[in-house]
């Protein structure tokens, strides 16, 4: 099903840091935005539809507005630069919220934010505060001047700031934070790839089960250098029985869409979850950053990046 786009208008714009703009969006046509839960993101259509980018909703759920915080990243592929040109009153098109990073049903929550990865976790802090949840947020940033939302979080006793350029004693010690795996605690990680890989690797080394670890990436992780070669395979559409060859240099999603199959998509990088379908037969080779090990084991599959170990993969489309 294709994404349904909504018209939004920028109703507030502030600078959280020299490089981070906070944008409040409201409906442009009088209708209400759909509600969302903490951890959700939206797609934003930029450059006259030529770019689609995902941004986490960082404001407290339930305000009727959507709040985004956008880093003007020098390595941007164009999205953050375009977002930083938006001014008060500008209109843009956005998707309804999707949540691949929700709060888990846990008694305690351990949140790790690296830099701009604070955005979905800020919404989680709002929700947990509203419901009296038990949590600790570790917010790690290169320097205080790069940290968004410091004033909002400064008085919160559940928040620990870690600045790389300040006293070594306050730097993030992941091993001590994660020293004791606990069955009723959920761990959440969001930030740059290196930060996320480090926290997740230390959690795994400490014995945290994969099901306790929740992550959201802003960019696809680097391919595994020891991973198997990407080969060609065939996708079969279960509803029609039609088969399509997926060459080694194309994604299954591209091939399906080229052949007129109504396959939803957004990020094309295996990070948003929009394209996820169920595998009915065959052996997938999972190469996404969005599905949990349980979801993968349960037959879910991201055709934008993942491939097949078997010759044929039958998809529930
Ligand atoms: S399109 Fe985003 S995960 Fe596939």
From TrEMBL:
CDD domains in the record: fer2, PDR_like
Required co-factors: FAD
Domain (FAD-binding FR-type): residue spans on this chain: 3-104
Record key words, sorted: 2Fe-2S, Flavoprotein, Iron, Iron-sulfur, Metal-binding, Oxidoreductase
Domain 2Fe-2S ferredoxin-type: 233-317
Taxonomic superkingdom: Bacteria
Pfam families recorded: Fer2
Protein name: PDR/VanB family oxidoreductase
